[in-house]
Design brief:
Largest sheet: 2 strands, antiparallel
Radius of gyration: 25 Å
Shape: elongated
Order of helices and strands: EEHHHEEHHHHHHHHHHHHHHHHHHHHHHH
Helix content: 55-70%
Strand order of the largest sheet: 1-2
CATH topology of one domain: Serine Threonine Protein Phosphatase 5, Tetratricopeptide repeat
Number of helices: 26
Number of strands: 4
CATH class of one domain: Mainly Alpha
Distance between the termini: 54 Å
Length: 560
């Protein structure tokens, strides 16, 4: 009896982008005031920032450390630093600004406005009282912005007001790197979805690039360049910043992870794996230093690292990553926070136990699909999330378990039905067409199977290019190429593998599929080039993998 989980509607754990428009300009703004020139101050292992202010000299080291942590999204450490600055100088208005801002994590869509407001009340009971403690018009502008962030209203309207206030401050002080960067970040926090975001991304990226040219050690400049260009059409523009950021702020786990956003989109698997491994290891040390349980490690970077290892043919390490997730889930309680995106006072709201469970299901699915170790799912009936469900179906098809394939198809129909969350339904519908195609193909009904794949690829083409681990878990273009190749239609298969590689550059299964298709089509030179690329990807792969033997054999055969 199959035990397929009816809780599939838990979804795929995708973030929903905020859809925010620009707010009207304010009726008035602070009089322009130029901050004193300042040489960027080095913050050990966090980069170099310049933030002239009226705080006590003895409080500057802690304050700048807090700003540097803010730029690398190390929110708990930023809070600690700003509180340290407040102890040294209780009247230091910007120290309260920084601590309050630490309770808003805009690109992770997490905030605690009540705690942010409580920090502001430490400075003064009312906005007017707090404003009076800011000693320059420029510092009053920073304070006014965070006041807007924690004003009344919903998240969307408050972030709009904050971004508008930061835009006013940045315009009044074009030489103030911090104003430019916090404004750029605010623009990224209110992006439209998909390609509609490109103009705003380019504006934010241009601002961050200007600061990066002035100060190549600025953590926020490098960081926000990567985020601004975290889009399929823009990713190459972030490459220089991606290769710099981990060196700028190696103390920050997130700074070590962010370069992978660029590397994965470009198919630079080795570089992505190196930086995500460093990110994971740093988070392990961070949790230990704070006396936190292993559930507070950065599982976000681990899930990326797991995928990168599969692209390198390092499946033993990918399996080891699954063990680490299993260990965390064994000790986690349903109400526990799970690390990944840390939150508030070193306690964290994190990504949540259920989200980590879904990530675990996705990781297992990718391990099975990328390694093609279908037998490891023989007889399995339960699953965590839609990705693992699809891997179950693929495995059952390869093992000729028709009944289990049909059960998976039925579950996918449920997931794709109207009323389910849009992100789940969008992917489930593609996976449903894919699974029906696989099922029909196995019955010899090739024309019907290809009609299903036409539907799957058309739906996938409407989705934006992935910026991280690709979705759906088995790309429709790649699967179409594999089915066409198996049907003896090599030239058509080449076209679909090439489409897959335009959407997800250098994916190893697409690369070896292209090599096979070109060989079958009689394109010896093209096949050789693709096999060489595949071997480059898998140059440090696990020993005795059949794909490596195939590629080496093909190249030796053509050399004689």
């Amino acid at each position: 009896m199959l035990r397929f989980a009816s809780a599939l509607a838990a979804g795929v754990g995708l973030s929903v982008l905020s859809l925010v428009a620009q707010a009207p300009p304010p009726k008035s703004r602070p009089a322009p005031q130029r901050p004193a020139a300042s040489t960027p101050a080095a913050v050990p292992s966090l980069g170099a920032v310049s933030f002239p202010n009226a705080g006590a000299p003895a409080a500057q080291q802690a304050f700048l450390r807090g700003v540097a942590w803010l730029h690398s999204f190390g929110y708990e450490d930023a809070m600690d630093a700003f509180r340290e600055a407040q102890k040294v100088d209780p009247a230091f208005a910007l120290a309260y600004w920084g601590e309050a801002l630490s309770f808003d994590q805009p690109l992770w869509y997490m905030e605690e406005p009540d705690k942010g407001r409580a920090v502001l009340r430490k400075l003064g009971a009312t906005p007017a009282e707090r404003r009076a403690k800011a000693k320059t018009a420029r510092e009053q502008g920073y304070l006014a912005a965070v006041e807007a962030l924690y004003s009344e209203g919903d998240t969307r309207s408050r972030h709009l007001k904050y971004s508008q206030a930061m835009g006013t401050l940045a315009a009044a002080h074009p030489e103030d790197d911090e104003a430019q960067l916090f404004y750029a970040l605010s623009l990224l926090s209110v992006l439209p979805r998909g390609d509609q975001s490109v103009p705003q991304r380019q504006k934010a990226g241009t601002m961050a690039e200007a600061v990066f040219r002035k100060n190549p050690q600025h953590p926020g400049a490098a960081h926000y360049i990567i985020h601004a260009y975290d889009h399929g059409a823009l990713a190459p523009k972030a490459l220089s910043a991606a290769r710099a950021y981990a060196k700028i702020a190696p103390a920050a786990s997130h700074a070590l992870h962010m370069p992978a956003h660029t590397f994965v989109q470009l198919g630079y698997w080795e570089e992505a794996a190196v930086t995500d491994r460093a990110s994971w290891d740093t988070s392990v040390q961070w949790a230990a230093r704070r006396g936190l349980p292993n559930t507070m490690r950065d599982f976000h970077s681990l899930t990326w690292l797991h995928y990168e290892w599969t692209q390198l043919g390092r499946f033993r390490e990918a399996a080891g990553a699954l063990v680490l997730v299993d260990e965390a889930l064994k000790v986690a309680r349903p109400t526990d926070a799970i690390g990944g995106h840390h939150y508030s006072d070193a306690i964290g709201r994190g990504i949540g136990v259920e989200s980590l469970r879904l990530d675990r299901g996705s990781m297992r699915a990718r391990y099975i699909i990328e390694s093609e170790r279908w037998g490891e799912m023989r007889g399995q009936g339960s699953f965590d999330g839609i990705d693992e469900l699809f891997a179950l179906g693929m495995s059952a098809a390869m093992l000729k378990d028709r009944g289990r394939v049909e059960a998976v198809i039925q579950e996918l129909r449920i997931a794709a039905a109207p009323g389910k969350p849009a992100e789940l339904r969008e992917q489930a519908e593609i996976m449903l067409y894919e699974m029906q195609a696989i099922h029909l193909f196995a019955q010899g009904r090739h024309a019907d199977a290809f009609a299903e794949m036409d539907r799957a690829t058309a739906l996938q083409a409407r989705m934006p290019k992935p910026i991280g681990r690709p979705y759906p878990v088995k790309g429709a273009d790649e699967l179409y190429g594999e089915l066409l190749l198996e049907a003896g239609r090599a030239q058509a298969a080449i076209e679909w593998f090439e489409k897959a590689l335009r959407r997800t550059p250098n994916r190893s299964r697409s690369v070896i599929g292209l090599a096979r298709a070109k060989a079958a089509a009689g394109d010896a030179a093209g096949s050789r080039k693709a096999y060489e690329q595949f071997l480059q990807n898998w140059r440090n792969a696990d020993p005795n993998l059949p794909e490596v033997a195939e590629a080496r054999g093909a190249l030796r055969g053509r050399a004689h």
